[in-house]
Write a structure and sequence with these properties.
By secondary structure, this protein is an all-alpha fold. The protein has 9 helices and 2 strands, in the order αααααααββαα. The longest helix has about 45 residues.
Length: about 350
């Protein structure tokens, strides 16, 4: 695993970073919050776009197909988040596969549950008073239980796969049920088209946020087997806790300083580094979303006009790429400022 403060490689299960002394127990809550917020943002975007595409295409597409299509579109946006956060192309690809597979299977199961009733996406708002915790809520919970489980299964490491799988399933079930109930209430009270879209956005944010919260809990709190230290790694006994720890600046078990302070290299301006990482994440995320949306726009508009489909695809791709470049430029500017400050500080100390 890696330290969230200095990005150093740290032994699995460590309580403290051996390089900068960061207390992982204190940073776990912040890490879970960042994951939850990233998932919620992706959910808001995914539900908003899937709702827009659904409203455009629902007149010319068979009912079962657009139910599956809408779920898959929303699932794809939350499936890529883990890969983007961890800068892993493999996890982006596997997250996409897990989201598509889980969305398709979940949609089919939900349609089977609703086979004797009206489709869940074509409900009559006036019936919301009598829907409470209904079959519709159960169907939506099942959809995101399956989707969340597949996303967790496809994006987790071998050591934690079962725990992340269970976490994704629990988060999807709870988020799907709560998100659907909130969606019903907001749609029932909506007085304008903007409020209809707001209902989708809020529902998506809650559902995706809870999925990522439980997936993160599965990653952070799952038990892992102790790995033996490699032959090349120097080991010493900490004088405070009397436990084995790699020779570094800090003990990984109690945080005690092991050697001279100059070995420890805590990162200054940690908040600015995190802001830089936020811009990098948003840039990569928007670029991937733009590419997926461009392909979807081409497919949706192709039956109407090949020129419009090509124009829409190119326009979305160009705009997303410009945003990606702009956000990366902001991130690089922040890092450049930190490098200038670091070099200035070194010259002053000399």
């Amino acid at each position: 695993m890696r330290c969230s403060n200095c990005d150093a490689e740290v032994k699995e299960g460590s309580k403290y970073c051996g390089v900068c002394g960061t207390n992982f127990l204190l940073t776990t809550a912040a890490w879970l919050l960042r994951r939850t917020l990233a998932g919620a943002i992706a959910g808001c975007i995914g539900w908003f776009l899937s709702s827009g595409i659904f409203n455009i295409t629902n007149q010319g597409i068979a009912e079962p197909f657009y139910i599956v299509l809408r779920i898959v579109i929303a699932a794809v946006f939350i499936g890529i988040v883990i890969g983007v956060l961890e800068k892993s192309t493999n996890k982006v690809i596997f997250g996409l596969l897990g989201a598509i597979l889980g969305g398709v299977i979940g949609s089919i199961v939900a349609m089977y549950l609703l086979r004797n009733d009206m489709p869940m996406w074509l409900f009559i708002p006036e019936k919301a008073k009598s829907l409470e915790f209904s079959l519709y809520t159960t169907a939506n919970a099942v959809i995101w239980l399956i989707t969340g489980a597949f996303i967790g299964l496809f994006t987790s490491s071998d050591k934690r796969r079962i725990y992340v799988f269970i976490g994704g399933a629990l988060g999807g079930a709870i988020g799907g049920a709560i998100g659907w109930e909130i969606f019903l209430r907001l749609r029932f009270e909506a007085v304008s088209p903007a409020m209809f879209f707001t209902a989708d956005v809020i529902s998506g944010g809650i559902t995706a946020g809870l999925i990522f919260l439980f997936i993160g809990m599965g990653e952070k709190f799952s038990p892992t087997s102790e790995e033996k230290a490699s032959a090349e790694e120097a080991i010493m006994i900490c004088a405070i806790c009397r436990k084995e720890t790699p020779v570094s600046g800090y003990c990984i078990n109690c945080g005690n300083i092991l050697k001279a302070p100059e070995i420890a290299n805590p990162r200054r301006y940690g908040a600015l580094h995190r802001i830089s990482n936020v811009f990098r994440f948003l840039g990569r995320f928007i670029l991937i979303i733009g590419l997926i949306t461009a392909i979807g726009c081409f497919i949706v508009l192709l039956p109407q006009s090949i020129f419009s489909s090509l124009l829409g695809m190119v326009g979305i791709a160009v705009i997303s790429y410009i945003i990606f470049i702009s956000f990366n430029a902001i991130a690089e500017t922040i890092l450049l400022f930190l490098d200038i400050e670091k070099n200035t500080r070194k010259m002053t100390e000399r």
